[in-house]
User: What shape does this take?
Amino acid sequence: MNTRTVHTVHPSPLGDLLLTGSVAAAGVTLTSLTLPGQRGAPVVRAENRDDAPFAEAHRRLDAYFAGRPTRFDLPLAPAGTPFQQAVWQALDDIPHGTTTTYGELAARLGVPRAELRAVGRALGANPLLLVRPCHRVIGADGSMRGYAGGVERKVWLLTHEGALQPALV
Assistant: This one.
């Protein structure tokens, strides 16, 4: 099977999002979506930019940022351990406009409380921000814990989705 790795950029209120994927005869499989300045973001080469295979991802992102709740039902192939994959897949079940806690997510996965940090590490390694909504996981006390794209972006996303009330300034 002949595949190639490509990328595109999607402008957003959070800055330019970088999407990477593998293209084969069946289309593109999304491997990452990262935010500007995110640690661990893939390094891409300008000559490998190809916007066309990402048309559906662009449509869904436009809908999301226009305020229309959307599921990112796209072919996904993030690289990770089986445990990370299980944590990331569990994120798909957190509805738009809601949050859950690290402890609740761990309980759903059958992860003992003593291993809660492993869930946090898996969330921190999520290569598909927004698509796999790790921003919807918060501290048990309602605090905004770490987010690979920055806590201020996590707050923006949760406010955009209606899970947080806008701050009055």
